[in-house]
Amino acid sequence: MAKASKYTSRTPDENGVIHWSDEENKIWSELVARQLKCIEGKACNEYMEGLKKINLPHDRIPQLSELNEVLLATTGWQVAPVPALIDFDEFFRLLANKQFPVATFIRSREEFDYLQEPDIFHEIFGHCAMLTNPDFAEFTHKYGQLGYAAQKKDRVYLARMYWFTVEFGLMQTDDGLRIYGGGILSSPGETQYVYSDTPEINAMNVLDVLRTPYRIDIMQPLYYTINSIHDLFDISQLDIMALVEQAKELGLHDPKFPPKEKLAS
């Protein structure tokens, strides 16, 4: 089950409108301005093209209906308002129906730089531009269908694939390394970090990805790269569940990070 969040999502009114406060709109505005500067020359072309299409307002949080209009016209996707945290079942069900879950709350000033649960800035700024791309959209849709049909023990493997693509995916291009993963694109720290000498960056191998442990609360020690966004479409056509079976037989790779410290009881 989804763990508790200290945030509460806003409920849209009868017209589907969410009434954000001036302070919430100000936080959005500051986050967007900072991150647009940060991703310059680092985000992949597909993301930058998608950003033009969704035409995000800079002075206020967009209404979901504004995004839905563009997503529906480009790839048939929609965004769906959800509570701050949802369980795997609901997450996969939404993706299987071409609905991208968006938690309708925005981070507080105290967590301006980093928060563990995905807020509306992460979901919209990080992911929605990429959802205008047909290859990315098809990969995400297929992923949702697989996950919704999968058993609980297999979903953990699938979660790794999502983590190293949709959230933390990188691309090798003629212009050098570019970012397409929303977890990086919405984080100033991680955007800078991937261009440092610290992380290990490997070419995408789906079986390896399914076997690679990760932690959500640290900078990633390892990233995987694709060569073009069409690679995601090609991956979506593989027999991924057969690869999950293989990954289970082979076992996990050793983690490249220390275990999480247990809090003293």
UniProtKB/TrEMBL annotation:
Q: Which reaction does it catalyse?
A: (6R)-L-erythro-5,6,7,8-tetrahydrobiopterin + L-phenylalanine + O2 = (4aS,6R)-4a-hydroxy-L-erythro-5,6,7,8-tetrahydrobiopterin + L-tyrosine
- Write the protein's name: Phenylalanine-4-hydroxylase
* Gene that encodes the chain: phhA
Q: Which family does it belong to?
A: Belongs to the biopterin-dependent aromatic amino acid hydroxylase family.
| Cofactor(s) annotated in UniProt | Fe(2+)
Determine the domain of life of the protein's source: Bacteria
Domain Biopterin-dependent aromatic amino acid hydroxylase family profile residues, every copy: 1-265
Keywords attached to this entry: Iron, Metal-binding, Monooxygenase, Oxidoreductase, Phenylalanine catabolism
InterPro entries cross-referenced by the UniProt entry: ArAA_hydroxylase, ArAA_hydroxylase_Fe/CU_BS, ArAA_hydroxylase_sf, Aro-AA_hydroxylase_C_sf, Aromatic-AA_hydroxylase_C, Phe-4-hydroxylase_mono
NCBIfam families per the UniProt record, alphabetical: Phe4hydrox_mono (TIGR01267), PRK11913.1-2 (NF008877)
What GO MF annotations does this protein's record show? iron ion binding; phenylalanine 4-monooxygenase activity
